[in-house]
Amino acid sequence: MSKVINFFNIQNEYFVCKICTKKLRKPKDTSHSGITYHLKSTHPNEYEEIQKRKTLMKKEKGQQSIQSTFQPFLEDSAEAIFRSISQWMGVDTGPCLAIEQGIL
Ligand SMILES: [Zn+2]
């Protein structure tokens, strides 16, 4: 549970806090600022927990950002793409081949 909304049940026009059962009217723009404020001001420990998890998730996503960093380079030429793929394949299949040879 890493989102503010997970601390609330939805009942018709209201968000109902699971911790203190306080009802908060749903905003028309479906923003979560109201419930975020409630959690932050009334249940700071739970709110802090969410913030911690967010930071953790950002760290995990760090690996994915490598791809976007290299995206302009990959689009530069077809040759670059081929080179990158063959490098990736070489790295990826290397250990597998070693294992197969070991078994044989
Ligand atoms: Zn509450």
From TrEMBL:
Q: Which SUPFAM superfamilies does the record match to this protein?
A: beta-beta-alpha zinc fingers
Q: Does the keyword Zinc-finger apply?
A: yes
Q: Where is the signal peptide?
A: none
Occurrences of domain BED-type (ranges)? 1-50
Keywords on this record? Metal-binding, Zinc, Zinc-finger
Question: From what superkingdom does this record's organism come?
Answer: Eukaryota
Write one Gene Ontology MF term.
Answer: zinc ion binding
* Record's keyword annotation contains Secreted: no
| UniProt-recorded name of the protein | BED-type domain-containing protein
The beginning of the lineage is:
Eukaryota, Metazoa, Ecdysozoa, Nematoda, Chromadorea
Q: What gene, per UniProt, encodes this protein?
A: Cnig_chr_I.g2625
